[in-house]
Task: structure prediction
Amino acid sequence: MRCPSAVPALLALLASATAMADDADDLVASGEALAKRGEYSRAIEAFKQADARRPRALHACLIALSYTRRELWAQAEVALASCHARAGGGDPLPPWVDALDQTLATKLAAVDVAPISIRVEPPSLLATISISSFSPDETFAPRVVHLALGMHTVTATVSGRGRVASTVAVVDRAPQTVTLWFGPPPPSKVPWFVAGAGGLLAAGGLAFDLFAVQPVRARLEDASADVDAAAWARNSRVFDRRRAVTIGLFAGAAVAVGVGVALRFTVYRREVAVAPVPNGFALVGAL
Result:
């Protein structure tokens, strides 16, 4: 079955992809020209823009090369790791990457930087790491990164769990480990909402008893004292109906509070977890 109407859309999509590819190539050429003039910061921005249009190993490699020439070693090694990770059959490494690997390894062994191992606990979390000395758009997965002497803020971001930050002081070339701990997610408020609804029902029951049931009870007592059978019968029916409402409100309150407590300790129960702290371990997430 032919779909002639789909042909223009397909052609437009191909034309758009080709234009995007050409635009990325133009940005790479612009970045290379800037790098040849020693304008590495502007070159990096051009390579990043090209990568935003068409992610490729080449773009990450060019960013790593430019950072190496700027002597920003941590940024260079992160970009170079991305360069290698992206490379595949249809996206080969540039021929000069081996030389860049050797140059960066030599520099990291010679300059005043310290290997900082960045870890996230629990390790199963998919975290994105950012460092205060990096550009905001330069993030990476937990790994070892060589940081220059000085103070650095390391931040881990986990979707649905927020952010955790830690400051590391690099005073020499000694290795350090930064562990960013994400405790259990905050407990759900559902049990408290259910129990709170029970509390509102109980308050309503008390108010109804005070303002609707007790006045009728008083009239019943008066009718009984006056031996007024008609008044007693009339108020007795009203009293029975209102007392039933009061009992229903209190019963609903008891059920709601019971369900809230049951949810808190079953469906929404929090487990005890062990969190590493500077001088040992701590229990977190207890009931």
The first helix runs from residue 6 to 36. DSSP finds seven helices and eight strands in the chain.
